[in-house]
Amino acid sequence: MEFLEILRKKRDKEPLTREELQFFANAAADGSVPDYQLSAMLMAMYLNGLSDRETADLTLAMAASGDTADLSGIDGIKGDKHSTGGVGDKTTLIVAPVAASCGVKMAKMSGRGLGHTGGTLDKLESIPGFQAELSRERFLEVVNETGLCVVGAAGGLCPADKTLYALRDVTETVSSIPLIASSIMSKKLAGGADCIVLDVKCGSGAFMKTETEAKTLARAMVEIGKRVGRRVAAVITNMDLPLGSAVGNAVEVQEAVAVLNGKGPDDLRAVALTLASTLLYLCGKGDKAACEAMAQDAIASGKALQALERMVEAQGGDSRYIREPDRFPQANVRYVLTSPQRGYIAAMNAEQIGHACVLLGAGRRTKADKIDPSAGVLLAKKTGDFVEAGEPLATLLCASESLLPEAKRAFLGALRFSDVPPAPEPLILGTVE
Ligand code: URA
Q1: Are residues 226 and 155 in the same domain?
Q2: Which residue out of 110, 176, 182, 183 is catalytically annotated?
Q3: Mutate to test the pocket of ligand 1, among 45, 89, 175, 207 (most ligand atoms within 8 A of CB)
């Protein structure tokens, strides 16, 4: 097969066959086609689009470009959950133990923070001893023993996506819905779960800034799942402001544990319960009302918290940090940032808040940066709240005072004040099944 001929077809808006898409994915995985030709193809796909059939074929081809997780050693129905990325998004730490305590096996591969968005592995690694890299055998053992395990994606999974994602990042071709859908879903399919709930974030802190974009992406990903026989549902959730009150790593684990203890912020609990009950429903655990009740009971009975404790212990972590979250070391600097003016908080740009957290040390600016697990932000006010001048807006947590000036500027730059309260925004914008 000639790559130039495939490239010509996409340039001229002709549909690509399954074999041609497989050729492209294999070439990305094994380096047999140079990056400039792969990039030209990505731009042609970006400009001319891919049909649903082409998107599904590309996804399968990418999923088959490397290893696929063999979960046949795990008994029972396997579930997975994926978020398109947000700020303060610690829902995996709640959804996975809730689902596991209801009998779903959660064999989950997660990522690290990316740009202004946090990553589940970085959060879990704030627990002393926690191991995110396990052998395949140990991964399966932990899932069978405890019902859940969260690890980093194995190196050989979806090599085509690794190449294509890096090229998209530097060729202005990231924001293509078929390319995002195939990138995310290829990794989910290679991850091997039977049922997958997707949290498609929408708003200032998300990849998809508008509801229309988020819904289109959600539909594209659910459609791929349907075509390949996996049970997939997408919940579109508001990311116009951070989720919950804590943004960082250790502070997010503490907040997730608070929800598992029946406390914590209402928005976080509501999003996590919606995702968990949607996953239970996909896994055939009952009708929607029964699944909602089951998810709530997993928290009220303490079973979900115990599931998280068991997982942390099985992955080498000190589970006392889950039982007694006050054990997490406090940041050296705890700076109370006060409001420069009186009024309602009309908007809170979540991407900029995430950026302020990165400046405080909670995320990476370069690949080599080390995360400070204690760094982050505790929000005292959120969109819609009224604040007096001089009243606390947030506590900024970091290792050194030298980090404060830039982070304060970024945080305050994220806020917009108004004399009138903003119209309330829904937390859940829709579900695609
Ligand atoms: N996350 C991914 O894994 N891929 C994308 O293209 C976007 C978000």
Answers
A1: yes
A2: 183
A3: 207
